[in-house]
Amino acid sequence: MTARVALVTGGTGGIGTAICKKLADMGHKVVTNYRNEEKARAWQQKMKDAGYDFTLVAGDVSSPEQGAAMIQAVEAQLGPVDILVNNAGITRDGTFHKMTSEQWYDVINTNLNSVYNVTRPVIEGMRERKWGRIVQISSINGLKGQYGQANYAAAKAGMHGFTISLARENAKLGITVNTVSPGYVATDMVMAVPEEVRAKIAADIPTGRLGKPEEIAYAVGFLVADEAAWITGSNLDINGGHHMGW
């Protein structure tokens, strides 16, 4: 398998870390971005202790200028980006009738506009080289909605609209574009929720448990493989049967 440069935005989080590890295990050179350097360096050292050598670049994905500068930094250090995983995301929950414009735009800028900010600087190179893999990490709540998450659900649904349009534009150029929509995964953020609340969530999932970050990462690894060249414009639901579509 060809070793490629893989950029995972938001790679220091729970799902992001699992994705970084999976891509590294596949032989790729993996890089992620950061806003808080101290936390990022601590994460990087922890990964080194576990046997992973990840590259870090500064960059706020909600800014088009920083997104472009981040890609330039990656390509200067490692070479052209052939695999892009748009994973960065935040929540600013609240019922819509009380939601502030700051809550709305923070989530839209970080979760959705970031997809433009990071993908735009790499797509032309992928088209020239006639190879590329782009994966959006969306969410079950972009499919079914969630109380208090109009901003988050709108952004996550928009990510797949981006996927299917970009997939059509680039299908003949060796570039695939797909979405992965995780359900409730046992990340640090979810595990911080009171146990009784987590138990209620798990009780609604047909498999009877939360997902594992590694299970999401496995799907990303599958979609970016050379053998997945005929899969594009797809959304892969990974939620233990919590939400089943057609």
Protein traits:
246 residues; alpha/beta; Rossmann fold; 9 helices; 7 strands
SSE topology:
Blueprint: E1 5-8, H1 14-25, E2 29-34, H2 37-49, E3 55-58, H3 64-77, E4 81-86, H4 101-129, E5 132-137, H5 141-144, H6 150-170, E6 175-182, H7 188-191, H8 195-203, H9 213-224, E7 235-238
Parallel strand pairs: 1-2, 1-4, 2-3, 4-5, 5-6, 6-7
Helix pairs in contact: 1-9, 3-4, 4-6
Protein architecture, described:
- The chain is an alpha/beta fold.
- It has one domain (5-238): Rossmann fold (3-Layer(aba) Sandwich), CATH 3.40.50.
- 48% of the residues lie in helices and 15% in strands.
- The chain is built from nine helices and seven strands; from the N terminus they run βαβαβαβαβααβαααβ.
- The protein has a seven-stranded parallel sheet with strand order 3-2-1-4-5-6-7, with helices on both faces.
- Helix 3 (64-77) runs parallel beside helix 4 (101-129).
- The relative contact order is 0.15.
- The model has no long low-confidence stretch (mean pLDDT 96).
